[in-house]
Design goal:
- This protein starts with a strand and ends in a 7-residue tail after the last helix.
- It is an alpha/beta fold.
- It is built from eleven helices and twelve strands.
- The protein has a single domain, classed as Divalent-metal-dependent TIM barrel enzymes (TIM Barrel).
- The protein has an eight-stranded parallel sheet.
């Protein structure tokens, strides 16, 4: 199994003026040769020329993108219906960039029942079939949900049901390990969910969080996207995850959707004498390379422990 990292890891640097070739070079220097590309360009009216440029950037950097991620918004809200072209643009972009599959998040409406959630999302995903067939690019449906929100894709069985409901060979599953850890019971594991997905699973989002606490502990459901082993309280059981991947013969990459070193968007500004101090706003790109090199080595250790690491 090959290691991969989500390109969203460098979004803050891109927003700060770093070029795409330099961002890809930083990822390559950290050890990764595969990425999950962040398709922000799908918001543009004409994504194909940009996709062609990205293809050249990838080829020049020696990096492959086996998967991508479309822009995230709730497609089922009435005010977002006019934005569905964003997902078709994502498919056009990926075809031009040579990326075979792209994550498209499901949507939800407050108060929807499980049956309504499935009916609405299956109709939404089926609306993308013509664009999928035109481009040959697949859509990855990602698990998301917990008892506190109107999404009902918390388990592998749920996600398998959604993929089967769409019933098209270009629609498969992306298992988000961090999402699955939210409200996970202490008596179960992600292993059973991965077995339920089986060959439907073609992509991963791997990260850690402190998504479950036993009764009596304060629950903290934050989609943290941290490195594995990075916190005292992070508690994804990666043995269950990797053993499940091995037992279903998973063929995709072990893709880290980890975000660190970027601008700290959730930190309040520090103002002193009428001036903001932000010298520590983000890590220099040179330090980012060392940080993500540690992530690469962590992933190599994890996969090697099960005999499935590939260069």
């Amino acid at each position: 199994m090959k290691l991969s990292v989500s390109f969203c890891a460098v979004n803050g640097y891109l927003e700060g003026g770093l070029s795409y070739p330099d961002a890809l070079s930083a990822i390559r220097q950290s050890g990764f040769r595969h990425i999950d590309f962040d398709v922000k360009q799908a918001m543009a009216d004409d994504p194909e020329p940009w996709g062609c440029r990205v293809r050249r950037y990838l080829e020049d950097s020696g990096i492959c993108a086996p998967q991508a991620h479309s822009p995230i918004f709730n497609p089922l809200l009435p005010e977002n219906r006019a934005r569905w072209s964003t997902f078709e643009n994502s498919l056009l972009f990926c075809k031009a960039a040579g990326i075979p599959q792209v994550v498209v998040h499901p949507g939800a409406i407050d108060g929807n029942s499980r049956a309504e959630f499935f009916e609405n999302n299956i109709a939404f995903y089926r609306s993308l079939i013509p664009a999928c067939e035109q481009t040959g690019v697949g859509v990855l449906i990602e698990n998301i949900g917990n008892p506190a929100d109107p999404y009902f894709l918390a388990s592998g069985a749920d996600l398998a049901e959604m993929v089967d409901g769409v019933n098209h060979p270009l629609f498969t599953a992306c298992w988000d390990v961090g999402h699955a850890n939210h409200f996970w019971s202490a008596e179960s594991s992600q292993y059973a969910s991965l077995l339920a997905l089986g060959s439907r699973l073609t992509a991963l989002h791997v990260h850690d969080n402190c998504g479950y606490f036993p009764v009596g502990e304060r629950h903290n459901r934050i989609d943290m996207h941290t490195f594995p082993y990075a916190s005292l309280y992070s508690n994804v059981n990666f043995d269950a995850v990797i053993k499940g991947l091995c037992d279903i013969g998973y063929q995709g990459t072990f893709n880290f959707e980890v975000i660190a070193g970027n601008p700290r968007r959730y930190v309040s500004p520090f103002i002193i004498n009428g001036r903001e101090e932000n010298r520590l706003h983000m890590l220099p790109i040179e330090v980012f390379v060392h940080l993500y090199r540690a992530l690469y080595e962590t992933g190599k250790y994890m996969l090697s422990a099960y005999g499935v690491f590939e260069e």
